[in-house]
Amino acid sequence: MNEFVHLHLHTIHSPLDGMAKIKELILKAKSMGQASFAITDHGNMSGLYQAQKLADELDFKIINGCEFYYERLDEEKKNGHLLVLAKNNIGLRNLFRLQHEACTTNFYKKPRVNFEMLKKHSEGLVVTSTCLASEFNQRLLKGDTQGAIEWARKYQEVFHDDFYIEIQPNSMAEQHLVNKSAIRIAKQLNISIIATNDVHYANQEDAYAHEVLFAMQFKKKMSDPDRFKIGTDDFWLKSETEMRDSFQGMDEAIINEALSTTKEIADKCDSRIEKGKYLPKFYNIPDGETERSLLAKEIKVGSKVKGFNKNKSYMKDVQHELNVVDGEGYSGYFLIVQDYVAEAKKNGVVVGDGRGSGAGSKIAYLTDITEIEPSEFDLLFERFMAVGRIPDFDVDFSDQMSVFRDLQSKYGKDNVARIITFGKLTPRSVIRKVLTTFEFNMSEIIAITKLVPDLCPTLERAYILEPQLLKYKERYPNEWKVIERLEGGIAHEGTHAGGAIICPGLRDILPLKYDRKEDMLIACFDKKILEELGHYKFDVLGLETLPIIRRILDSIEYSTGEKIKLSEINYEDQEVYDMLCKGDVSGVFQLSAQATKVIEQQPRNFRDLIAINALIRPGVGDWDEYLARRQGKPWSVYEPRMPYMKETVGTMTYQEQYLLDAHVLAGWGIAYADQHIRKNKDIRNDAELATKFMYDAVEMNGHPHQEMTKVWLEIMDAVDGGYGFNKSHSASYGRTSYQTAYLKCKYPEHFYASLMSGEKTDGDGQNAIAGYIAECKQRNIKILPPHINNSGEYFVVNDNGINYRITTIKHVGDSAIKHINELRPMASFDEFMERREKKYIKKNVMMNLIKAGTFDFDNPNRAELLWKFDMSQRTKTQVKENHLCETYIWDDEVKCKWEKEVLGMYLSVHPMERYGFQPLDYYKEGHSCVQGGEVVTVHEFHPQKNTKKPKMAFIQVNTLYGMIKLVVFASIWARLSIQEAFTINNLVLIKGKRSNNDVLVDGVEVLKGESRGEEESTS
Ligand SMILES: [Zn+2]
Ligand SMILES: [Zn+2]
Question: Which of 271, 285, 321, 620 is the most exposed place for a label (fewest CB within 10 A)?
Fold first, then answer.
């Protein structure tokens, strides 16, 4: 007889706490004859929908619930637990509301509910006295029986028969204690008792893996005797018999009642998360207008401004788009996007032209959502949207948060939410985390995790791809058992990069949490589930390049008053293409690392930029053929294809090109072609489609059979090989590429200042800055030291060059910067010395400000200033006794040394300047070369990760002209003198061969620095 139902149960959605996956729980429960259970994760309901879906599939019933964190009245500083279940959909709504209220208004370490909140949202809920961590049980443990009784009475008064006393059969001594008192109180107050098992894992033998998971949660090692342990290994999904057995010794009648009452609750609980149509309405529709009429108005205005209103065929296309958009119910969607894009632009936010396919829409162009005129570049609306397909504008912003703020202000803070993501315990991360918890040494952990192929979804798959992993499984069977058990769990929760939903009454229909720092709600179902439930995801994305562009524009406006409108610059400026053709691409969006390809391509117009933005992607197009044809190899395509094939010299590069083939040659609608060609996973074997194409192109449209056969082959190759790229996306990215190139060409100081400001202060960032400084020098742009009056967290352009940022001077922290800001302006070094407060500007801060050159405007002899400062630090007696025997030398070498010391960088003088080496591109590809520079990083490794092969090395060297990479093959690296010459900070002369931007090293000499081995090279 199966009466018992688990009503207290945690899944992986109690991150690093529950470890059972929902599906295994359902399967196990069913195998024991249980037809339902409740899910009650900790302060969290993100697993409920997935559970509902699985339950529907597996013919099981889920009771929706939550074990909330609870504001205890008996102890302020500690959060309690409270188990709440939904009886019906009103109850489910109240669960969501409670969670919303807890995280927005009653947060203390965790989002908490309290009695008042429960009273307010009591309808449709079942509440229990919960586990040991509840206020009820904690009072009992402290001997406050009266307090516990009063607590229970309060809940009984509000929830009547829906309030239960909960007992658990675990082996903890405290539990035994409270079980007894709880039963007594239940009888006294006439409250029904239920038995639960606070399930945290599926099987008894999982207790150990769960212990490891717990250690991981608290970041403790397994060997740590003080790590928090649960104190029982009873928390598995027990059968009814196992439950009964574990209550042994207690009154059988009571236990029987407590077990069967759970079934009673299960029977009275029935709630479901419902799907809906949640596409939001535009917030501002004037009386007498509809979304469609409003959008039509906006289009009309746009078409007039942009000069298309008289173009009949254009306006016919626009009308068609409007019919599709409105017919599918997306007029409001367009209005919403148009509105937040316009608002952002109004506020000076730089807006990208939309990743993905949005640039194909004429309506989007006319309403200023995008700025590319689609027909000029053969961008297709149907690639973006068609009947039955959901449109999706992925728009990039330089300030993403400001757009979320805008949405909040227009649609209400409670109706806008970002979207949760779940950081899973992937094969690699679970191996790393578990082995760390067992204190394996780092190098072994790295060796093992490196074996897991990139992005490999499961261990099972990893074993197939890399059987070596199985050796470790054999070697460490205990740890590996844990690894396999924990795989796929949830390690942490995050926020989706740019997705947001807008919907009135979110707190009634979804579990939410609240990001306090950003003052933003977050929907706690992942984006796939939200879309399945009928929510619409708006993509408000950030793109690193856009804030850089914003800073360039600000810097230009600040220095010159000139306001540049990116929509109005000339996209065919030959000066810009001249610069690109030289391979001068650092900092140019998407092309920064593509100098070789850009030089090969020799872009001469915007179409070329669109093409290269597609062709740099792995697997897209045929680069070699494309180049050969650009350089004169004869080519031809069937004449009617010329208009859309010409710009890629007849090579198939864009999806739009084969869609146009179907349209132009066979007369197919683009939407039809998109559906049947682009999305056709098995086009090679689709004989029916081939026949239809041939029939339509040859018989219906009179094109030659032989040509059409060739075209169809090309289409199949492109679709099947996946090498056609979305041209709308290329075109939008091409715009951003061009904008950065344009700014670099016309306003290089502002460009470099902003680019360097965007770099972090870590090693990679410093290296990048060193490279940019070298480029600035080549362009005769001076990099000046930070200035005590003008410099901040960004590099600043002035009349003479670019001032370095002040915030990255060693030891100069936030409080010092804040103080300096308050003192500004300072007329002289002396004034600063006088006015500074020593608690903010301590000795080492002062010294470093001097060494960095922040007072150069007053006195460029930094040694003299340091001497002055030193004097001021001495006592009168010391001065009298003339302790000033030190002399401060001031020359380029000292300057070099100090700047490197406090800025980590050579600004004014580069140590290689006196040696007169040529830049690498002075030498021909593949030829011998000589280079000089400072050793920055040395990376030693076994070729092909094969430990049997001797090591080789990659070395980064800071030359006068920027960073270069050295490749030292094993035969040369084997020499000790070579290894020692490449000591970090050494200045070296390198002999080798040029290979693109790298040098293959043959030999090295130390110009300056350590060389402990043979002294051969120092002289
Ligand atoms: Zn609990
Ligand atoms: Zn619990």
Answer: 285
